[in-house]
Amino acid sequence: MAPRFVPLSDVAEMLSISASQAYALVRSGELRAIKVGGRGQWRVEDTEIESYIQRRYEATARMVEEERANAQTTEA
Using CA atoms, how far apart are residues 11 and 59, in angstroms rounded to an integer? Predict the structure, then answer.
């Protein structure tokens, strides 16, 4: 069974980003996480990772659509 919560190092690997970029996503609130344990280590729930990815897909689709609309306006 896959773990419910993963450390930021695993999140970074899943998203192909650096650990500092994963930490920045958490600190900015873009990626929800919790601090656990005596040392307060960050953990991200697997469903939060999937939700973040879905939000990024949606944002990218909006951006592409805006670029397409702007290109059509420029051509007209």
Answer: 20
Q: Answer for the pair 22, 31: CB distance below 8 angstroms, yes or no.
A: yes
Query: Cβ contacts of residue 76 below 8 Å, gap of 6+?
Result: none
The neighbour count for residue 36, using CB atoms within 10 Å, is: 12
Find tokens 């419910």 and name the residue: 4
Task: Give yes or no for a contact between 29 and 4, defined as CB atoms under 8 angstroms apart.
Answer: no
Query: Is the per-residue pLDDT at 76 higher than 70?
Result: no
Query: Which pTM does this prediction carry?
Result: 0.84
CA-nearest of 73, 31, 64 to 50 is 31
Question: Residues with Cβ < 8 Å from 45, sequence gap 6 or more?
Answer: 4, 5, 32, 33, 34
Q: Of 1, 47, 53, which is closest to residue 25 (Cα–Cα)? A: 53
Encoded tokens for 59: 């944002």
